[in-house]
C-alpha cells in the first residue's frame, strides 16, 4: 500500500510541489475526481488516500489562481498593443500623448498649419490688426436687460490734461493762431482736449503770449476770447483768468513794462465784447492794494467811460496789420505823414509805421509821401519828406522793392496828376534829384522819371533844360 501511495505522489507533484489531480493514475491509467468522490462516499479511503485527496484540492485551487492571473495580464498586454498601433483608446495616457503629438490631418488633407492662421481657438483674441465692430445686444440673451438699453451711452473718454502739460499743449495752439487767425480751428482743437478744472488758464496763457508779441497779436487775442466765450470758455472762466493776471502783474512787468496798461485795454475790450461781465470793474473798487493792478483797472475804466456808447472797442489796439481794410491803412498812413509834417519827429513816425505791421504795404507810404510833395507849396515839405524817406531807408523799414514800387506808381500817374498840379513835372524832377543825392533811390530809378512833354512844340523839358526830339 505504501508503494502505491508513492506512485500517486510522484505522478501528482510538479515544479512548484503541488499535486495535479488530472495526472493521478487509477487502475486503468488515471484517477479522476468522480472515482475519488465515490471512494469518499463509500468510506473506503485509507488515511494515505485521504491525505492525498486534501493535497489534490490545494493544488487545484492554486492552479486556478495562476490561470486567472495569467489570463488578465495577457488581456492587458493585448489592449496596450492595439492602442499603441491604432490609438483606439483616447482615455489612456499613451493615447493622449499620441493625440497631442500627432498634428497630421486625419483626412489626409491640409498642410498641418494652425487653424485660421492662429486666429481661432479657445482663448485667442484674433489675428493681428483685426478690428471688432460693436455688436448689438441680443434680445434672446439670458442677460439681456431691455430697461437698461436706453440708458447705455458709448463715448470716447479723453484723459484729463495734467497741469504740467497744459502750457506745452496750449502755447503751440496760440502761436499758430497768431499766424492764421482762424478762431474756428482753435475752437475745434480745444474741444478735443480735456482741460478739466484748468480750462481758465487757456485765456491767461493767450493774453500773456500776446503781451510779449505785437499789436496784431493782441487784437487777435481779443477776437479769440470774444469768439470762444459761450462756446468753449464760459464767462466765469475768462473772469477768473483776468483775476489771475491782475495778481501776476508784478511778474509780467519784468518782461513787459507796459503790461498794466495793456491788461487794462484787454479788460475794457473784453467787457465791450461781452466776454467779461459788466460788473467786473466794480468788484475791485476799494479792494486793490497792488499799484500795478490799480493802474490796469484805472486804464480800463477810462476806456469804458470814453467808449460808453460803442458796442465794441475795435480800435483799442490800433491797427491790426494786414487784417485791416486797405482804405483804413491808407487813412492811417496819410495821418502819419501829416502829423510828421507838423511835428517833424522821425522817431514817432517810425514807431507809428511799425505799429501798422504791414511791411508789404510800405510802398503806399512812399506813394503818399511823394503825392504830398507834389501838392505842397514850398521847399519845406520836400526837405522833410526826403529826410523821412532817408531815415526809413537806412533803418531798413522801407526796402528797395517797396521804394521802387512807390516811385513807379507816381511815375505812372504823373500825366493825370499834372492836370490838377501844373507844376507836377518840375517838382517831381527836383524831388527825384534830391532823393538820389541823399542816396534814397538808385540811379536807375532816377533815370526812369518821365520828363514833361510840350503838347505844342513837341519838346521835352526837364530841370536841366530843353531837349528837342
UniProtKB/TrEMBL annotation:
Gene Ontology cellular-component annotations: cytosol; nucleus
InterPro entries: ARM-type_fold (IPR016024), Initiation_fac_eIF4g_MI (IPR003891), PDCD4 (IPR039778)
Gene3D superfamilies: 1.25.40.180
Biased composition (Basic and acidic residues): 69-78
Major subcellular location class: cytoplasm
Keyword Nucleus in record: yes
Domain MI as annotated: residue spans: 165-286, 328-451
GO BP: any one term: negative regulation of DNA-templated transcription
Renumbered residue ranges of the record's region Disordered: 1-121
Biased composition (Basic residues): 58-68, 103-114
UniProt-listed PROSITE patterns: MI
Biased composition (Acidic residues): 22-38
Keywords for the protein's UniProt record, in alphabetical order: Cytoplasm, Nucleus, Repeat
Compartments where found: Cytoplasm
Family per similarity comment: Belongs to the PDCD4 family.
Protein name: Programmed cell death protein 4
Organism encoding this protein: Pygocentrus nattereri
Upper classification of the organism: Eukaryota, Metazoa, Chordata, Craniata, Vertebrata
Amino acid at each position: 500500500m505504501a508503494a502505491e501511495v508513492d506512485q500517486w505522489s510522484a505522478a501528482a507533484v510538479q515544479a512548484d510541489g503541488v499535486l495535479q489531480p488530472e495526472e493521478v493514475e487509477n487502475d486503468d491509467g488515471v484517477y479522476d475526481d468522480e472515482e475519488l468522490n465515490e471512494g469518499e462516499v463509500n468510506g473506503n479511503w485509507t488515511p494515505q488516500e485521504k491525505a492525498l485527496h486534501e493535497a489534490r484540492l490545494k493544488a487545484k485551487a492554486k492552479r486556478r489562481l495562476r490561470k486567472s492571473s495569467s489570463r488578465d495580464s495577457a488581456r492587458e498586454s493585448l489592449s496596450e498593443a492595439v492602442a499603441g498601433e491604432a490609438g483606439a483608446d483616447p482615455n489612456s495616457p499613451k493615447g493622449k500623448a499620441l493625440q497631442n503629438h500627432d498634428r497630421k490631418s486625419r483626412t489626409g488633407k491640409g498642410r498641418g498649419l494652425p487653424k485660421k492662421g492662429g486666429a481661432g481657438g479657445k482663448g485667442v483674441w484674433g489675428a493681428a490688426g483685426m478690428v471688432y465692430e460693436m455688436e448689438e445686444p441680443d434680445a434672446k440673451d439670458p442677460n439681456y436687460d431691455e430697461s437698461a438699453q436706453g440708458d447705455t451711452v458709448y463715448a470716447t473718454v479723453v484723459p484729463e490734461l495734467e497741469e504740467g502739460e497744459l502750457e506745452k499743449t496750449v502755447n503751440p495752439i496760440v502761436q499758430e493762431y497768431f499766424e492764421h487767425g482762424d478762431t474756428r480751428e482753435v475752437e475745434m482743437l480745444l474741444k478735443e482736449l480735456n482741460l478739466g478744472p484748468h480750462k481758465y488758464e487757456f485765456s491767461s496763457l493767450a493774453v500773456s503770449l500776446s503781451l510779449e508779441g505785437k499789436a496784431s497779436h493782441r487784437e487777435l487775442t481779443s477776437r479769440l476770447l470774444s469768439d470762444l466765450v459761450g462756446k468753449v470758455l464760459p464767462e466765469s472762466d475768462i473772469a477768473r483768468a483776468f483775476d489771475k493776471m491782475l495778481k501776476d502783474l508784478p511778474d509780467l512787468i519784468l518782461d513787459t513794462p507796459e503790461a498794466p496798461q495793456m491788461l487794462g485795454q484787454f479788460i475794457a475790450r473784453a467787457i465791450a465784447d461781452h466776454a467779461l461781465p459788466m460788473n467786473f470793474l466794480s468788484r475791485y473798487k476799494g479792494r486793490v492794494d497792488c499799484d500795478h493792478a490799480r493802474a490796469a483797472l484805472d486804464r480800463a475804466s477810462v476806456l469804458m467811460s470814453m467808449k460808453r456808447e460803442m458796442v465794441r472797442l475795435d480800435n483799442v489796439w490800433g491797427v491790426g496789420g494786414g487784417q485791416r481794410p486797405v482804405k483804413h491803412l491808407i487813412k492811417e498812413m496819410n495821418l502819419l505823414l501829416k502829423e510828421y509834417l507838423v511835428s517833424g519827429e522821425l522817431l514817432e513816425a517810425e514807431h507809428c509805421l511799425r505799429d501798422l505791421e504791414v511791411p508789404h504795404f510800405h510802398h503806399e507810404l512812399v506813394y503818399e509821401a511823394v503825392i504830398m510833395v507834389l501838392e505842397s507849396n514850398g521847399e519845406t515839405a520836400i526837405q522833410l519828406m526826403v529826410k523821412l524817406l532817408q531815415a526809413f531807408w537806412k533803418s531798413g523799414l522801407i526796402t528797395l522793392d517797396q521804394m521802387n514800387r512807390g516811385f513807379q506808381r507816381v511815375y505812372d500817374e504823373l500825366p493825370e496828376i499834372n492836370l490838377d498840379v501844373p507844376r507836377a513835372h518840375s517838382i517831381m524832377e527836383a524831388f527825384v534829384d534830391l532823393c538820389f543825392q541823399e542816396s534814397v533811390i538808385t540811379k536807375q530809378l532816377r533815370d526812369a522819371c518821365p520828363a514833361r512833354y510840350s503838347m505844342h512844340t513837341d519838346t521835352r523839358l526837364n530841370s536841366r533844360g530843353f531837349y528837342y526830339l
